[in-house]
């Protein structure tokens, strides 16, 4: 069965096994010139300094950010303000804890510089991540503490000999009842190389934000689970870029086998307009 309605070039599809959605989004990306450096020594020294640093901040789970995100994604009941104690859906914690610094202190792409490597590694992409959820979800009305730290750094070279710095940033969220969730982000930083950044062989336009694709995959999974099932975790990796104003599809399937804890495993992925894989991940679901 296929459902379709016009939203620019966006359509929605529904299959018997699991729903596939096609969407387009707008985004911007600014680039600047970067210089080269002694990368190995530079990153080693920076890693030594940043690994000892952590940051703690606080926020309150108010209903408006959740509703605004629901409205943006056109979710069911999006016009209803969530009531007190409503659980925050997987990855909707992104609506909270905005970076609280003046714009002049942000990176050129608008992201926090807290765990960003030093110049010239300033061109950032979202490589993937992992989400771990307890059965103590964040809820509307909770006062929440967030602890951020850098858990790992690696300097690598791409197949084209480009130097890449992979940074793992851990974000642990705690409410009044204790630990709630971990958001482990894997970001990759690189140097801009002249003649390459604007090449259509690399990027044809502005990119869809990686966490947005991740959120759509988790929404798809949640929409197809019984109400008493619980998403324990989701590990994902960006494979190819999704480009703004091009349709894409989010997909998933349940595997026959269980994990070592007896939880169900779901493979999730996002497809480009041409059918290539843009993001793929694996979710574990507790069956009650």
UniProtKB/TrEMBL annotation:
What stretches pass through the bilayer?
Answer: none
Q: Which SUPFAM superfamilies match?
A: Thioesterase/thiol ester dehydrase-isomerase (SSF54637)
Q: Which domain of life is it from?
A: Eukaryota
Gene3D superfamilies reported in the protein's UniProt record = Hotdog Thioesterase
Entry's InterPro entries? Answer: HotDog_dom_sf, Mitochondrial_HTD2
Q: Which GO terms describe its molecular function?
A: (3R)-hydroxyacyl-[acyl-carrier-protein] dehydratase activity
Gene Ontology cellular component annotations, sorted alphabetically: mitochondrion
* Descriptive protein name: 9522_t:CDS:1
């Amino acid at each position: 069965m296929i459902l379709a309605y016009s939203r620019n070039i966006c359509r929605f599809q529904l299959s018997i096994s699991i729903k596939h959605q096609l969407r387009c989004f707008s985004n911007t990306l600014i680039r600047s010139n970067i210089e080269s450096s002694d990368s190995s020594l530079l990153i080693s020294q920076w890693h030594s300094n940043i690994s000892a640093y952590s940051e703690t901040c606080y926020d309150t789970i108010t209903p408006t950010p959740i509703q605004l995100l629901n409205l943006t994604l056109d979710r069911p009941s999006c016009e209803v303000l969530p009531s007190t104690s409503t659980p925050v859906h997987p990855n909707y914690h992104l609506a909270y804890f905005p970076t609280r610094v003046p714009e002049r202190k942000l990176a050129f792409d608008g992201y926090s510089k807290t765990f960003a490597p030093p110049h010239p590694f300033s061109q950032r992409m979202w490589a993937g991540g992992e989400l771990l959820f307890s059965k103590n979800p964040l809820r509307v009305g909770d006062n929440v503490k967030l602890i951020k730290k850098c858990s790992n750094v690696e300097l690598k070279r791409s197949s084209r000999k480009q130097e890449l710095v992979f940074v793992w940033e851990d974000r642990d969220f705690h409410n009044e009842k204790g630990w709630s969730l971990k958001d482990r982000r894997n970001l990759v930083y690189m140097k801009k190389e002249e003649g390459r950044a604007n090449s259509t062989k690399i990027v044809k336009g502005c990119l869809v934000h990686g966490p947005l694709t991740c959120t759509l995959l988790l929404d798809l999974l949640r929409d197809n689970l019984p109400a008493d099932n619980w998403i324990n975790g989701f590990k994902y990796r960006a494979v190819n870029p999704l480009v703004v104003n091009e349709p894409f599809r989010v997909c998933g399937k349940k595997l026959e086998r269980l994990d070592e804890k007896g939880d169900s495993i779901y493979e999730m992925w996002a497809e480009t307009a041409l059918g290539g894989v843009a993001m793929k991940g694996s979710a574990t679901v507790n069956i009650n």
